Amino acid sequence: MDIPHEPVRPALPAVRRVNAFAPLGWCLHALTDLQRAWLPALFYGVAFVVMGFLLFGLFARSPVMVMTLSAAFLLLGPFLAAGLYAIARDLERTGTASLRVSLTAWRGNVQSVTLFAALLAIMTFIWFRVSLLVFALFATGPLPTLDSLLTQMFAPADATLLVLWFGIGLAFAALVFVVSVVSIPMMIDREIDAFSAMLVSLRAVRANLPAMLVWAALLAGLALAGFASGTLGLAVTMPIAGLASWHAYRDMVSS
């Protein structure tokens, strides 16, 4: 009599340790990739700029919405940069990259990428609701404008509100960072389910905490530089972040 066997799950990819300053090397590789494939990469950069313009244009009179949606924009960043991962992958494998191929990069593992995108969307929606709730419960006067945000953070009346808002936003961002730092590049690169990819991402962060702190700071700096330039800088900073993320994945996860 045949004895039924449970299907054996494939072993998860091994995680490698990297130097604390390895993220600087990833960014240098990204700059090289940007030079080699500037046209398809800048297509995504311009897309980020357009989204930024729409964000500030549609909600210019509602600083709370701008702040909340800006954070949501960053939470969804790993998914929005999927095409950039494909560009870096193709440059590594063949020396050339195609915009057309990058636009459909997710189709090779559509189920996993779609599930992960849905999870990111749910987390973003939760952040959106929590953010509005915090402002509704703790705002003691007129909400700060974008121009006065940093000034009012140190004003006694709104300091608690804004510190709490930034603290909760940081917690959401940290969670997204931990589960996505290598997961989407991995799903673009190989056949792996979303939850396994997130587990590998968690292991990569745990094994390389100093490097991940440096990497998170660099990503935040690139995003802030892009927004500080009226979103025009996103045309360059977001492609750098996306291309560098591919090299982070290749450096920390075994083939």
TrEMBL record:
Keywords: Membrane, Transmembrane, Transmembrane helix. The keyword Transmembrane applies. The chain crosses the membrane at residues 41-60, 66-88, 109-139, 159-184, 205-225. InterPro entries: DUF2189. It holds the Pfam family DUF2189. This is DUF2189 domain-containing protein.
